[in-house]
Structures are given as structure tokens and as C-alpha cells.
Design brief:
alpha/beta; four-stranded antiparallel β-sheet; 233 residues; 38% helix
Length: 233
């Protein structure tokens, strides 16, 4: 019989209780998990076998999480491995530094275990072959996916991680109608049977933050939303 292979998730976290909760939830969701209590152990686990994704606490006893992220992203073997940062800090400096170093997402403690599982699924799905990359610019909006930054009319706009993924999805599907159910599935990793009002709320907030680019995201009555490029009209 062929053994079923499950995605391998490396959890770099020194708080035992958090590791146990994450391991249980991720295994229930069909993942294999490998814990590491500090940077040295994390790199040892990576040398044993490259993980499919890393959940990385920023506050570790021997090495800053940002430094671990930098080393992972600068190594050709692990450069494409998605990194989700865990931080208890309200200060966004660590998150910004993490994104500049190539981190793929962040989660602030305390967190919902379900949210962590959904985020892991989302970062793994982003690497699926055949997915169209997001456009770098549409009208006054410029998206820098590598640095996780957004600019409108040359001025940087602060988006949450979820708002960034929503905008990234729209910019990868210019001119195509996205139903609320589709967005729930692709951005939130939830099924369409759940309440779709959350999509409307997030689109409203995203539009407000985009300023002069707000009208690029059009409401398609009875269906959902579509992002249009004014240069193509």
C-alpha cells in the first residue's frame, strides 16, 4: 500500500501549551507537524527534511524570529517555503520587518486555532501551479507582493493581512466577476454556506483605504464584485 503524504508544518514556538494546541488542530486538519522550541532546533529540523510551511514565533529564547525568517528566505533550499509569523506584540514594527524579509503572513496572539489552520491552508494554496499572479499596478493602485505593501497615488496605504489578500485576489483577476461565495472560499478559506456579509464589510473597508482607487472595485448587482482596469475601458 502507498503511504499518504501530508504537508509537513514546522512549528517554531517555545510555549509548550501553544505547541500542543497547534499540533492537535493541524493534525486534525490533515497535516503532519514538527515542533521546535528555538532557532537552533528549528534549523536542525529543516536540515532533516524541508517543511511545506513554517509557523514562526517572533519571540524565541536564542534567536529573533525575524532572523530565522531572514535565513530561511535567503537560503535557496527554503526560500519558497511559506512562513507565518506569530507575534504577541501590538507594535507593527516586527510585522513590517518580517514582511520585508519575505514572511507570507502573520497572526497576532491570542489567536483562534481555526484561523491558524485556515491561514496555513491559504499560504500553501497560493503556491498552486497555474494560479495567475496579481497585477503590479491597476490605475492609481500599486501592489508590491514581495514586500507586502500597497501604494495609492504613490502614497503607502496600511492594509491588514486579510485586506491585502483580498486586494491581491482582485488584482489577479482583473475584469472577472468574483462572487461572495468565491471570495469566502479563496480569501477566507471558508465555504459559501457561511455568512457572506463579512465579504461586503471587508470590501467596504478596502475601498475606503484605496482612496482615489476605490471605484476600481465595482459591485456587480446580484453577483458580487469585479475589479476593472480603467486603461482597458
Amino acid at each position: 500500500m502507498t503511504r499518504e503524504v501530508h504537508p509537513r508544518i514546522l512549528i517554531v514556538e517555545d510555549e509548550k501549551d501553544i505547541v500542543q494546541v497547534l499540533e492537535y488542530a493541524l493534525r486534525q486538519a490533515g497535516f503532519d507537524t514538527v515542533p521546535a522550541r528555538d532557532g537552533a532546533e528549528a534549523f536542525a529540523r529543516v536540515r532533516e527534511k524541508t517543511p511545506d510551511a513554517v509557523i514562526l514565533d517572533l519571540m524565541l529564547p536564542d534567536l529573533a524570529g525575524t532572523e530565522i525568517c531572514r535565513q530561511l528566505k535567503s537560503n535557496a533550499r527554503t526560500a519558497t517555503v511559506p512562513v507565518i509569523m506569530l507575534t504577541a506584540r501590538s507594535d507593527e514594527v516586527d510585522r513590517v520587518v518580517g514582511f520585508e524579509l519575505g514572511a507570507d503572513d502573520y497572526i497576532t496572539k491570542p489567536f483562534s486555532v481555526r484561523e491558524v489552520v485556515l491561514r496555513v491552508k491559504a499560504v500553501l494554496r497560493r503556491g498552486t501551479p497555474g494560479e495567475t499572479p496579481a497585477r503590479a499596478e491597476v490605475g492609481p493602485v500599486r501592489l508590491d507582493t514581495e514586500a507586502h505593501r500597497v501604494f495609492v497615488d504613490g502614497e503607502e496605504v496600511e492594509l491588514t493581512a486579510l485586506e491585502f489578500r483580498l486586494l491581491e485576489t482582485f488584482m489577479a483577476r482583473i475584469g472577472r466577476v468574483q462572487t461572495r461565495e468565491q471570495l469566502l472560499h479563496d480569501v477566507w478559506e471558508m465555504t459559501g454556506e457561511l455568512q457572506t456579509r463579512t465579504v461586503d464589510t471587508h470590501v467596504k473597508r478596502l475601498r475606503e483605504k484605496l482612496g482615489s482607487g476605490r471605484d476600481l472595485i465595482e459591485t456587480v448587482r446580484g453577483l458580487g464584485y469585479r475589479m476593472s482596469d480603467p486603461a482597458e475601458k
